[in-house]
Amino acid sequence: MDAIFAPTPRIDQYLHEFVAGLSLPENLREAIRYSLLGGGKRLRPLLTWHCCEASCGDGERSLPAGAAVELIHAFSLVHDDLPAMDDDDLRRGRPTLHIHAGEAMAILTGDAMLSLGFHVLADRTEPSLAIRLCKELAVGTEQMIAGQVYDTLGGLPAEMSEVDRLRMMHMNKTGALIRAACRMGAACGGADDRSAIMQGITTYAEAIGLMFQIVDDVIDVTQTTERAGKRTNKDASAGKRTFAAALGVDQCRRLIAELESRAIGAIWPLGSSLLRLRDIATMLASRSV
Ligand code: IPE
Ligand code: IPE
Ligand code: MG
Ligand code: MG
Ligand code: MG
Asked: Which pLDDT tens digit goes with each residue over 270-288?
């Protein structure tokens, strides 16, 4: 398992240097540093790194893409926590950015990180790859925002079953950025869009992306706030639509195991370089933070 997290210090160093070099007001740079680098698992840049390596690339080449996805993810968390959204006061074990620096700064920091995600790609990857990566990231970001609209404001087709609606919401709000992280990593490693490796990684990413949010819903009802580093036992009282509420925890665990098998099945035929991705799927299926 340690091998999964081995690139984390390098990813953090890259993000630190990137933020230090920004020509922005110091208070904004500080707010970006606070929300981007204060805690967090760095799952998405780790996926970008390992999908790059699984596609025969050196993980170093994935760093701009990993930074881009983490910037969009951090933006999504800062805005997700705002009073108009989930109204949360704790994130990654610390006060949320709007509690720490005020609501205006939180809105503007999210805006800045959204732009910086694309800026880092345009600046630090070669032009033909940059166009591909920007498109992947744009699709992931737009779907994440659509998912947040389903979650917060509704709009899911009424004729769908409750489980299908949950699936659609989760695949958008959380799955889409995880899918982008994996596909961008594969592209950095040299995988062609129509290659077997890209197809396998895409199916894998869609399975772990949906699984990740189902696990998040389970964490809300099974873990303490201290362990999770964010308020738990909150979704039901906030009237959130979740897998845990719709199916119960036991049924969720069965679905999580099914998605883990689907993810591993998709990459298994692609060879031994993908073993690390298998370990990530297993780790995500049993995580408690
Ligand atoms: C939390 O994501 C928000 C969801 C999409 C469920 P993570 O659990 O990856 O959060 P950090 O980055 O580790 O804080
Ligand atoms: C968040 O879903 C998804 C995004 C930030 C896009 P949640 O609202 O369930 O995430 P947490 O539980 O606050 O981390
Ligand atoms: Mg939310
Ligand atoms: Mg939330
Ligand atoms: Mg949640």
From this structure: 887 789 999 999 999 999 9
Phi/psi of residue 232, each to 5°?
A: -110, 175
Q: What are phi and psi of 91, to 5 degrees?
A: -150, 135
Q: What would the DSSP string read from start to end of the chain?
A: -HHHHTTHHHHHHHHHHHHHT--S-HHHHHHHHHHHHSS---HHHHHHHHHHHHTT--GGGGHHHHHHHHHHHHHHHHHHTSTTTT--SEETTEE-HHHHH-HHHHHHHHHHHHHHHHHHHHHHS-HHHHHHHHHHHHHHHHHHHHHHHHHHH----TTS-HHHHHHHHHIIIIIHHHHHHHHHHHHHTT--TTSHHHHHHHHHHHHHHHHHHHHHHHHHHHS-HHHHTS--S-TTTTT---HHHHH-HHHHHHHHHHHHHHHHHHHGGG-GGGHHHHHHHHHHHH---
Q: Answer yes or no: pTM beyond 0.85.
A: yes
Cβ-contact 94, 101 below 8 angstroms: no
Is residue 170 within 8 Å of 210, Cβ to Cβ?
yes
Query: What digits encode the pLDDT tens for the residues 14-71?
Result: 999 999 999 999 999 999 999 999 999 999 999 999 999 999 889 999 999 999 999 9
Burial of 226 (0-12, 13-18, 19+ CB in 10 A): exposed
Closest-CA residue, ligand 1 atom 14, reads 40
Measure 216 CA to ligand 1 centroid, in angstroms.
Answer: 8
Counting ligand 2 atoms within 8 A of each CB, the residue from 87, 216, 231, 241 with the most, and so the one to mutate, is 216
